[in-house]
Design goal:
Layout (H helix, E strand, L loop, with lengths): L9 H18 L4 H16 L5 H33 L4 H8 L4 H13 L15 E5 L4 E5 H17 L9 H35 L1 H15 L7 H21 L3 H17 L6
Antiparallel strand pairs: 1-2
Amino acid sequence: MSIHRERISNISLMAMFVIFVGTVIAVQLTTVYMSLGLALILCMIHLLKPVSHGVRDVSLLSVLYLLGYWLFVCLNLFIKEYLNQLGLQRELIISCSRLSLIGYIIPFLFFTRINKMTINYMKMGNFTETIYFPLIWHGVKDPIWRFLLIASGTVIVSFSFVIDFSQDNIVPLLWVGILFALINSVLEEILWRGLILSRFVDELGEKWGLVVVSIGFGMYHYSIGFPWSVCALFSVFGMLLGGITIRSKGLLPVMILHFIMNILFVFSGLIFNM
């Protein structure tokens, strides 16, 4: 995969979108045997020489995602069963089970060892780079650090209207929320922005790569238990996170915002009361 990509036709662009987002949705609705069939079809597309280079590359990335999904499922079941046997509280089990995201990451890491990423967001990132609000590349220009302060303050104030700060378990919930947010934000950003977004920006460019990966990111949340309508909102959230990653050229800024959002999700009941 190379940054020297061919000019992408509308048909190829649509094909790449359908292949990847379709894979993200389909794997959550099918059995492991049906997923094997889908993986076989994707491998055949990857091997077809008449098919454009970009479509073949995205087909291969989709196979890696399929493999990662089932590794995630197996790890998730193992972690939950093991922690249930230890008699841990439900919230702690849910938080620790997010370690199963490593299942998604493993295939992409192995692939990276044999096929280096030309564009690589697996870096710290630069807080002094600029971003534009509200359209990332167009709007009011701000440094990343100030944009993060404004965005964090906005979401904290917004969620304060739906969070019950008088609940008896507020302190224990804070600690388990920090654990959940730390595991989830770091691993999701490594997967979706560090590994997947890097590949798609290389194939499609920054804007289309961001759109495709953000929609995939939103749809992937269905497997966690969110309805499709909420998944669509997560796609919008994914656009923001991906935009910060692209503009900062790394993961630390976006991990911070993701961490704050996850803690607010915990306090609002979106995580443990589903």
